[in-house]
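Materials and Methods. Structural model of Iron-sulfur cluster repair di-iron protein. The 240-residue sequence of Iron-sulfur cluster repair di-iron protein from Flavobacterium piscisymbiosum was retrieved and submitted for structure prediction as follows.
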Amino acid sequence: MENLRDKTVGAFVTEDFRTAAVFSKYKIDFCCKGHKTINEVCLKQGIETRVLLKKINEVVLAEDTNVIDFNSWPLDLLADYIEKTHHRYVLDKSVIIIQFLNKLCNVHGGRHPELFTINELFNAGVVELSQHMKKEEIILFPFIKNMVKAKERDEAVPQPAFGSVENPIAMMTHEHEIEGERFREISNLTNNYTAPSDGCTTYKVTFAMLKEFEENLHTHIHLENNILFPKAIALEKEFS
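The predicted structure was written out as tokens:
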């Protein structure tokens, strides 16, 4: 048990993604703050370590043949999956959510002025995420895929303009932290995505979509911060 207390949150989720639900329940950030140990997050959140580890253990021991082991995937496949699943999700869902938020501001903004702040935060996040994803798709992901091909063919990897892969990864990780903080603020402003008593159906649907968007973003960031990026750094070191 003692060793598990020093294990990082990201390591638990990397080994078994089902544990993400446990961390989410306790409002523990497993993506941007995935480098924190169980001891550290329990201390910060005021949770008994043994209780959290018990919940994690229950999930890990439960049989589920549908669990996807992203940690075993080749890096080029994982990069493609992130782009085609999570990047597309952001682009597709953000358009609808922005429309709904604009409607809520027009109809309910007088009684709920926090909607304007939520709308501004979400719109700013979408702009930043769009630029962030483009950098990954044009610069970082192609280099990772080239490294995979080079290793398969036992070839050298051309030196990229950005130097070490650690440089763009550091930038992407920093931007992940910014988005994580932005959505924590949105979560607080929405009372953890709970519509007010006078909220209409559109209100409830919009908040439900915002919650799903944040959950998808957490998975997106986890796959990069805790699996793709560390393995890309390790792969680059094999060439040197």
